[in-house]
Design brief:
The protein has 142 residues and is an alpha+beta fold. Helices cover 18% and strands 30% of the residues. The chain is elongated and about 85 Å long. The mean pLDDT is 81.
Length: 142
């Protein structure tokens, strides 16, 4: 009888912390609201040897203005005037009018098959799309 009591006490002492860990009113996870943000980008800044068959993919937290994203960009010093701009190392702009918008108007996809092999490109996303302007440098495979 004495060993049974000791065993029961041992089991209860091990279960006690587990029982106390269960709350009657658990805290619920409420995901943060990112506002207008770029939440995913491929390729990421600094990527090299990108296959020309790959795609540029940008996913935003809010709807994309498709007309503004596909509109022409103009150089403005080291930056550009436009919502979304892709330029080669000489500053020549790439036509993004063939880009597709999907995922409830939150993802922009652009085929990089028309880019030059071994070239460095600069992707610029304006403040109208994000809280701050963002720039990526990418390089295609040779």
């Amino acid at each position: 009888m004495r060993t049974t009591t000791i065993q029961r006490l041992a089991v209860l002492s091990l279960l006690y912390p587990l029982l106390n860990a269960c709350e009657d009113d658990p805290d619920l996870f409420i995901p943060p609201e990112p506002g207008d943000a770029l939440i995913y980008a491929y390729p990421s800044d600094g990527m090299v040897d990108l296959p020309l068959g790959s795609k540029l993919l940008l996913t935003f937290s809010s709807d994309i203005d498709e007309a503004a994203a596909k509109a022409e960009c103009q150089p403005d010093g080291d930056n550009f005037v436009g919502t979304l701009c892709l330029a080669d190392s000489e500053g020549s702009l790439v036509d993004l009018s063939s880009a597709e918008v999907s995922n409830r108007k939150r993802t922009l996809t652009f085929s990089m098959s028309g880019l030059r092999a071994g070239e460095e490109y600069r992707l610029w996303v304006s403040r109208r799309s994000l809280p701050e302007s963002s720039t990526w440098m990418i390089r295609t495979a040779r």
